[in-house]
Protein backbone atom coordinates (compact mmCIF):
# COMPACT_ATOMS: atom_id res chain seq x y z
CA UNK A 1 0.00 0.00 0.00
CA UNK A 2 1.39 3.39 -1.04
CA UNK A 3 0.93 6.39 1.24
CA UNK A 4 0.59 9.96 0.02
CA UNK A 5 1.65 13.18 1.71
CA UNK A 6 1.40 12.52 5.47
CA UNK A 7 1.24 16.26 6.11
CA UNK A 8 -2.35 16.12 4.81
CA UNK A 9 -5.41 14.61 6.47
CA UNK A 10 -5.75 12.06 3.64
CA UNK A 11 -2.13 11.00 3.96
CA UNK A 12 -2.47 10.54 7.75
CA UNK A 13 -5.61 8.44 7.24
CA UNK A 14 -3.72 6.27 4.76
CA UNK A 15 -0.87 5.91 7.26
CA UNK A 16 -3.34 4.94 10.02
CA UNK A 17 -4.86 2.25 7.78
CA UNK A 18 -1.40 1.04 6.75
CA UNK A 19 -0.33 0.60 10.41
CA UNK A 20 -3.53 -1.16 11.54
CA UNK A 21 -1.75 -4.54 11.55
CA UNK A 22 1.88 -3.39 11.68
CA UNK A 23 4.26 -2.22 14.41
CA UNK A 24 6.57 -0.44 11.95
CA UNK A 25 6.33 0.90 8.40
CA UNK A 26 8.91 -1.60 7.09
CA UNK A 27 9.42 -5.07 8.55
CA UNK A 28 9.37 -6.16 12.17
CA UNK A 29 11.98 -3.79 13.60
CA UNK A 30 12.34 0.01 13.41
CA UNK A 31 14.27 1.28 10.36
CA UNK A 32 15.21 4.54 8.66
CA UNK A 33 11.84 4.27 6.86
CA UNK A 34 10.18 4.89 10.24
CA UNK A 35 12.45 7.89 10.81
CA UNK A 36 11.59 9.28 7.37
CA UNK A 37 7.82 9.01 7.92
CA UNK A 38 8.14 10.21 11.55
CA UNK A 39 9.91 13.39 10.43
CA UNK A 40 7.34 13.95 7.68
CA UNK A 41 4.42 13.59 10.14
CA UNK A 42 6.09 16.12 12.44
CA UNK A 43 3.72 15.87 15.42
CA UNK A 44 1.56 13.29 17.18
CA UNK A 45 -1.58 12.35 15.17
CA UNK A 46 -4.98 12.85 16.81
CA UNK A 47 -6.62 10.15 18.94
CA UNK A 48 -9.01 9.49 16.05
CA UNK A 49 -6.04 7.81 14.30
CA UNK A 50 -5.10 5.25 17.00
CA UNK A 51 -2.73 3.14 14.90
CA UNK A 52 -0.76 6.13 13.63
CA UNK A 53 -0.68 7.62 17.15
CA UNK A 54 0.53 4.35 18.70
CA UNK A 55 3.31 4.09 16.09
CA UNK A 56 4.30 7.78 16.48
CA UNK A 57 4.57 7.52 20.29
CA UNK A 58 6.67 4.38 19.94
CA UNK A 59 9.16 6.01 17.53
CA UNK A 60 9.21 9.15 19.71
CA UNK A 61 10.27 7.04 22.70
CA UNK A 62 13.72 6.61 21.10
CA UNK A 63 16.30 9.38 21.19
CA UNK A 64 18.07 10.74 18.10
CA UNK A 65 21.21 8.62 18.59
CA UNK A 66 19.17 5.42 18.85
CA UNK A 67 17.26 6.25 15.66
CA UNK A 68 20.51 6.90 13.79
CA UNK A 69 21.60 3.33 14.51
CA UNK A 70 18.64 1.77 12.64
CA UNK A 71 19.17 0.13 9.28
CA UNK A 72 17.61 0.92 5.91
CA UNK A 73 13.98 0.11 5.18
CA UNK A 74 11.44 0.28 2.35
CA UNK A 75 9.43 3.50 2.63
CA UNK A 76 5.67 3.51 1.83
CA UNK A 77 5.76 7.23 0.96
CA UNK A 78 5.27 8.03 -2.75
CA UNK A 79 4.12 11.66 -2.96
CA UNK A 80 6.55 14.29 -4.19
CA UNK A 81 9.03 11.76 -5.53
CA UNK A 82 9.96 10.30 -2.15
CA UNK A 83 12.48 7.44 -2.37
CA UNK A 84 11.18 3.88 -2.10
CA UNK A 85 14.05 2.96 0.18
CA UNK A 86 15.28 4.97 3.16
CA UNK A 87 19.08 4.47 3.43
CA UNK A 88 20.71 3.65 6.72
CA UNK A 89 21.87 6.74 8.56
CA UNK A 90 25.59 7.26 8.99
CA UNK A 91 26.42 7.82 12.68
CA UNK A 92 27.36 11.40 13.45
CA UNK A 93 31.07 12.16 13.35
CA UNK A 94 31.81 8.55 12.44
CA UNK A 95 35.20 8.97 10.81
CA UNK A 96 36.61 5.60 11.81
CA UNK A 97 37.83 5.10 8.24
CA UNK A 98 40.17 8.06 8.69
CA UNK A 99 41.96 6.36 11.58
CA UNK A 100 45.13 4.65 10.44
CA UNK A 101 45.70 2.13 13.21
CA UNK A 102 49.04 0.98 11.89
CA UNK A 103 50.57 4.15 10.51
CA UNK A 104 52.76 4.10 7.43
CA UNK A 105 56.39 4.50 6.45
CA UNK A 106 59.51 2.41 6.54
CA UNK A 107 59.55 -1.15 7.81
CA UNK A 108 61.80 -0.07 10.65
CA UNK A 109 59.61 2.48 12.43
CA UNK A 110 61.36 4.81 14.78
CA UNK A 111 60.25 5.77 18.27
CA UNK A 112 58.24 8.80 17.02
CA UNK A 113 56.21 6.69 14.58
CA UNK A 114 55.48 4.14 17.31
CA UNK A 115 54.27 6.91 19.64
CA UNK A 116 51.94 8.34 16.99
CA UNK A 117 50.50 4.93 16.23
CA UNK A 118 49.86 4.26 19.93
CA UNK A 119 48.09 7.61 20.30
CA UNK A 120 45.85 6.79 17.34
CA UNK A 121 44.96 3.38 18.76
CA UNK A 122 44.05 4.94 22.12
CA UNK A 123 41.97 7.68 20.47
CA UNK A 124 40.13 5.10 18.40
CA UNK A 125 39.37 2.95 21.47
CA UNK A 126 38.18 5.98 23.44
CA UNK A 127 35.86 7.05 20.64
CA UNK A 128 34.35 3.58 20.36
CA UNK A 129 33.70 3.41 24.11
CA UNK A 130 31.65 6.63 23.98
CA UNK A 131 29.18 5.40 21.40
CA UNK A 132 25.71 4.94 22.99
CA UNK A 133 24.47 1.39 23.49
CA UNK A 134 21.09 0.41 22.04
CA UNK A 135 18.50 0.32 24.85
CA UNK A 136 16.28 -2.78 24.95
CA UNK A 137 12.61 -1.82 24.94
CA UNK A 138 9.23 -3.56 24.73
CA UNK A 139 5.83 -2.47 23.43
CA UNK A 140 2.96 -3.72 25.61
CA UNK A 141 -0.81 -3.62 25.04
CA UNK A 142 -2.71 -3.92 28.33
CA UNK A 143 -6.35 -4.86 28.95
CA UNK A 144 -7.58 -3.14 32.13
CA UNK A 145 -10.98 -4.49 33.21
CA UNK A 146 -13.45 -2.69 35.50
CA UNK A 147 -15.79 -4.22 38.06
CA UNK A 148 -19.04 -3.38 36.28
CA UNK A 149 -20.79 -1.03 33.86
CA UNK A 150 -21.00 1.69 36.53
CA UNK A 151 -17.21 2.12 36.79
CA UNK A 152 -16.04 5.59 35.72
CA UNK A 153 -13.78 4.54 32.83
CA UNK A 154 -12.38 8.03 32.31
CA UNK A 155 -11.25 8.23 35.91
CA UNK A 156 -9.83 4.71 35.69
CA UNK A 157 -7.74 5.74 32.66
CA UNK A 158 -6.56 8.86 34.50
CA UNK A 159 -5.39 6.70 37.42
CA UNK A 160 -3.54 4.34 35.08
CA UNK A 161 -1.78 7.18 33.25
CA UNK A 162 -0.89 8.78 36.60
CA UNK A 163 1.49 5.86 37.23
CA UNK A 164 5.00 7.14 36.56
CA UNK A 165 8.13 4.99 36.37
CA UNK A 166 11.57 5.69 34.97
CA UNK A 167 11.57 4.03 31.52
CA UNK A 168 7.76 3.99 31.11
CA UNK A 169 5.90 5.86 28.35
CA UNK A 170 2.11 5.67 27.98
CA UNK A 171 0.63 5.62 24.46
CA UNK A 172 -2.76 5.45 22.79
CA UNK A 173 -5.84 3.93 24.43
CA UNK A 174 -9.44 3.00 23.62
CA UNK A 175 -12.49 1.40 25.22
CA UNK A 176 -13.41 -2.08 23.96
CA UNK A 177 -16.86 -3.64 24.65
CA UNK A 178 -16.76 -6.95 26.52
CA UNK A 179 -20.51 -7.51 26.97
CA UNK A 180 -23.46 -6.57 29.18
CA UNK A 181 -22.70 -2.88 28.70
CA UNK A 182 -19.21 -3.26 30.18
CA UNK A 183 -16.11 -1.85 28.44
CA UNK A 184 -12.47 -2.62 29.14
CA UNK A 185 -9.65 -0.09 28.80
CA UNK A 186 -7.07 -1.11 26.20
CA UNK A 187 -3.92 0.98 26.57
CA UNK A 188 -0.49 0.89 24.92
CA UNK A 189 2.82 1.57 26.67
CA UNK A 190 6.54 1.33 25.87
CA UNK A 191 8.99 0.27 28.59
CA UNK A 192 12.76 0.05 28.92
CA UNK A 193 13.32 -3.58 29.84
CA UNK A 194 16.14 -2.92 32.32
CA UNK A 195 14.14 -0.31 34.24
CA UNK A 196 10.51 -1.45 34.28
CA UNK A 197 9.14 -4.79 35.50
CA UNK A 198 5.86 -5.78 33.84
CA UNK A 199 4.74 -7.55 37.03
CA UNK A 200 5.32 -4.44 39.14
CA UNK A 201 3.54 -2.27 36.56
CA UNK A 202 0.42 -4.48 36.56
CA UNK A 203 0.46 -4.59 40.38
CA UNK A 204 0.52 -0.78 40.51
CA UNK A 205 -2.47 -0.62 38.16
CA UNK A 206 -4.40 -3.18 40.26
CA UNK A 207 -3.77 -1.11 43.40
CA UNK A 208 -6.64 1.10 42.13
CA UNK A 209 -8.96 -1.61 43.43
CA UNK A 210 -12.07 0.59 43.50
CA UNK A 211 -11.89 0.76 39.70
CA UNK A 212 -9.76 -2.13 38.46
CA UNK A 213 -10.87 -5.75 38.61
CA UNK A 214 -7.92 -7.23 36.69
CA UNK A 215 -5.13 -6.49 34.22
CA UNK A 216 -4.15 -8.73 31.29
CA UNK A 217 -1.35 -8.44 28.73
CA UNK A 218 -3.02 -8.43 25.31
CA UNK A 219 0.21 -8.10 23.30
CA UNK A 220 3.94 -7.98 24.13
CA UNK A 221 6.58 -7.18 21.52
CA UNK A 222 10.32 -6.59 21.85
CA UNK A 223 11.44 -3.51 19.94
TrEMBL record:
Residues 78-90 have a biased composition (Low complexity). Keywords: Elongation factor, Protein biosynthesis. The keyword Translocase does not apply. Residues 137-223 form the Translation elongation factor EF1B beta/delta subunit guanine nucleotide exchange domain. GO terms for cellular component: cytosol; eukaryotic translation elongation factor 1 complex. GO terms for molecular function: guanyl-nucleotide exchange factor activity; translation elongation factor activity. It holds the Pfam family EF1_GNE. The keyword Transmembrane helix does not apply. Residues 101-128 form the Elongation factor 1 beta central acidic region eukaryote domain. InterPro entries: Arc1-like_N, eEF-1beta-like_sf, EF-1_beta_acid_region_euk, EF1B_bsu/dsu, EF1B_bsu/dsu_GNE, Glutathione-S-Trfase_C_sf, Transl_elong_EF1B/ribsomal_bS6, Transl_elong_EF1B_B/D_CS. CDD domains: EF1B (cd00292), GST_C_eEF1b_like (cd10308). Residues 73-97 are annotated as: Disordered. Gene3D superfamilies: 1.20.1050.130, 3.30.70.60. Belongs to the EF-1-beta/EF-1-delta family. This is Elongation factor 1-beta. It comes from Mythimna separata (Oriental armyworm).
